[in-house]
Design brief:
heterodimer; A: mainly alpha; MetI-like fold; disordered C terminus; B: 6-stranded mixed sheet; 5-stranded antiparallel sheet; elongated; binds magnesium ion
């Protein structure tokens, strides 16, 4: 016998549909993604401090403060500079290495592993490694190497501009491995006969790269750039370990600024401000979201292509 | 004159010798078909001619000019790949134009050549399309168009029809033959399909394990196969070859009889053999009869469509021994 009740019908279609199977995954997602995110939005609208712990609602006050906070604005400026150079640099380098390693050569696997390792190491460790290398006394690896040539000591981390360059170079070093593996994967999907056809058509290596390889990898290049933009924009451990944002706040990024504002020394009047830090976090979230949306669009674009 | 002369060409991948020293002459304007089973080195040979693979040793001469070391694009040789290898992001027109652009042919001349090729290959309506929006046969034609516009001295084809369905393959085969007749350009064509080889070639080159077993006109290879391998490779159904008593009594190690050189007769005669029918395939135009024949073994007979036999019948088989092929233990033909 059939029961025609709409409620029963709804329940049975729910139980027999996909939803029961999705509940565990959705539950985990809500608990570990949804809750912290919601909580952060909430905190961003309070004046919670690390020292006191209690908080009252202040609306958008934290956000409006950010627009006039020189530390935040400086950090935002440097983050944009840092992200642009690092993403561009690691892409050019990573793609170049991928092109090199895509050929038959001895020790190819070893090179690949070696270069990928830089990406697998924690950013914090990368920061410390570079800090040791850039140590400005002659104990530092780089200055130690330059000393016999009468160069230096180079103020790698004590000169503001030099420190910015150092942080960017260290981040390029860290992220090149990712781009390389990503693009290498793309290169290996290219149909060999198409590249050979280009060769028969008289294309030189660079012409094949420009007219065949790059256009075919366009969707993948977009994805690689967006991934590394997101990862680079949010960086803070590297800065923390390498330069602590200094000298002054020359190398402070938004991520680092957020960390310092929210969890920094609570004796210092300007720091330990959970609410304000959360607001910075929200601003980072919005930028990341924007890139993620572009990424999703790029994904659609990639499907259109073939 | 665009004749191709190959002397002492070899190719090894690491220690694996794929092509032992090989000599081949492709006359000007010839349609030469390299045929052989998969993995016998046809593509490797073709790719060395194209310049996509570096020979381990030997020499390639085109129109008397040494091209062994020349870049692929400098050889005046065009190639049509098995997968068509069209540039997926370019329209048909751009695909055809690409090589001309790289060769810095001026725009008027490019337009002229593209429209000529498009007309010849019936691509005029498709010039704006991307390869993904084309059927297999259309892609094939674009690949040919891309080869034609460069006006090469030699066309190379590597199994160009193997990705097409049977009906289209038959149609494209005719189109290719017509194309060759119209252009008169030297063509070297690789296939593992003996029907394609027989129908297209004016010179057929049968390869086995990197070696040339026989070359010459297709009919000559069919009628007088130089080796047992060639005998069994050309023709469908393939030649019956037996090493049993009938071979011995004919003074050969192996005796070969084409299915069409055997008759089924009503009455036993002095020269007839006796066999039992295993299977009858009625194809309409003809009937293929599989038998087990005393002193020969498996024997396939090609008979008229109205032949009256059924499985398990015992039949009298009359071979035309004047058309039998005899082979020695080394696989080479024994002439009477
Ligand atoms: N790049 C390569 N490296 C190693 N072995 C190869 C390579 N290309 C072809 N071969 C080998 O050479 C033999 C001939 O291959 P191929 O010329 O493609 O045969 P065909 O085209 O007649 O089917 C095969 O055994 C194949 O495995
Ligand atoms: Mg092949």
């Amino acid at each position: 016998m059939k029961n025609a009740s709409p409620v029963r019908g709804f329940i049975s279609s729910f139980v027999n549909g996909p939803w029961p199977w999705l509940i565990p995954a959705l539950g985990v997602l809500l608990l570990f993604r949804g809750y912290p995110l919601g909580n952060q939005f909430w905190l961003a609208m309070t004046d919670m401090k690390i020292a006191s712990g209690d908080a009252s609602f202040v609306g958008f006050e934290n956000f409006s403060f950010l627009f006039s906070d020189p530390n935040y604005l400086t950090a935002l400026g440097f983050t944009i500079l840092f992200t642009s150079f690092s993403v561009f640099g690691s892409f050019v380098l990573g793609f170049g290495l991928a092109l090199m390693l895509n050929r038959q050569m001895t020790g190819r696997v070893i090179y690949r592993m070696g270069i990928l390792t830089t990406w697998a190491i924690s950013s914090l460790i990368v920061g410390y490694i570079w800090r040791l290398m850039l140590n400005e006394s002659s104990a530092g690896v780089l200055n130690g190497l330059l000393e016999p040539f009468g160069i230096g000591p180079v103020p790698w981390l004590s000169d503001p501009n030099m420190a910015q360059v150092s942080v960017i170079v260290a981040d390029i070093w860290r992220s090149t491995g990712f781009t390389m593996i990503f693009m290498l994967g793309g290169l290996q999907t290219l149909p060999n006969e198409v590249l050979e056809a280009a060769k028969m058509d008289g294309a030189k290596g660079w012409q094949t790269l420009l007219y065949i390889v790059m256009p075919l990898l366009k969707p993948l290049i977009a994805v690689a750039l967006i991934f590394s933009t997101i990862a680079t924009f949010n960086v803070y451990e590297l800065v923390l370990a390498l330069s602590s944002g200094g000298p002054g706040n020359a190398t402070s990024t938004v991520g680092f600024e957020m960390y310092r504002t929210a969890f920094g020394d609570s004796m210092n009047a300007g720091l330990g401000l959970i609410g304000r830090g959360a607001a910075m976090g929200v601003s980072m979230f919005l930028v990341t979201l924007m890139f993620a949306l572009i990424y999703i669009r790029a994904g659609v674009f990639a499907r259109d292509l073939d | 004159m665009s004749d191709l002369k190959i002397t002492g060409l070899t190719k090894s991948f690491d220690k694996l010798e794929v092509i032992p020293p090989l000599d081949l002459y492709v006359p000007d304007g010839s349609f030469t078909v390299l045929v052989g089973p998969s993995g016998c080195g046809k593509s490797t040979l073709l790719r060395m001619i194209a310049g996509l693979e570096v020979p381990s040793s030997g020499r390639l001469e085109l129109s008397g000019k040494d091209i062994t070391q020349a870049e692929p694009a400098d050889r005046e040789i065009a190639m049509v790949f098995q997968s068509y290898a069209l540039y997926p992001h370019m329209s048909v027109e751009r695909n055809i134009e690409f090589g001309l652009k790289l060769a810095r042919v001026d725009i008027e001349e490019r337009k002229r050549r593209i429209s000529e090729a498009a007309r010849m290959l019936q691509l005029e309506q498709l010039l704006e399309r991307k390869p993904a929006a084309l059927s297999g046969g259309q892609r094939q034609r674009v690949a040919i168009g891309r080869a034609i516009v460069r006006d090469p001295k030699v066309f190379l084809f590597d199994e160009p029809l193997s990705n097409l369905d049977a009906a289209l393959r038959a149609k494209m085969r005719v189109e290719l033959a017509e194309l060759h007749a119209r252009l008169g350009t030297t063509m070297i064509y690789v296939t593992h399909d003996q029907t394609e080889a027989m129908t297209l070639a004016d010179q057929i080159v049968i390869m086995n394990k990197g070696k040339i077993e026989q070359m010459g006109s297709p009919i000559e290879a069919y009628d007088r196969p130089a080796t047992r391998f060639v005998a069994e490779f050309l023709g469908a159904p393939r030649m019956n070859v037996s090493e049993q008593e009938k071979a011995k009594s004919s003074g050969a190690f192996a005796l070969g009889l084409r299915p069409e050189d055997i008759g089924i007769v009503q009455n036993q005669t002095q020269n007839s053999w006796q066999g039992r029918v295993r299977l009858v395939e009625r194809l309409g135009a003809e009937t293929i009869i599989y038998t087990d024949t005393d002193g020969f073994g498996d024997l396939v007979v090609r008979a008229k469509s109205d032949v009256q036999v059924s499985p398990n019948d015992v039949v009298h088989i009359l071979p035309d021994l004047s058309k039998a092929h005899r082979f020695g233990e080394d696989g080479n033909r024994i002439d009477p």
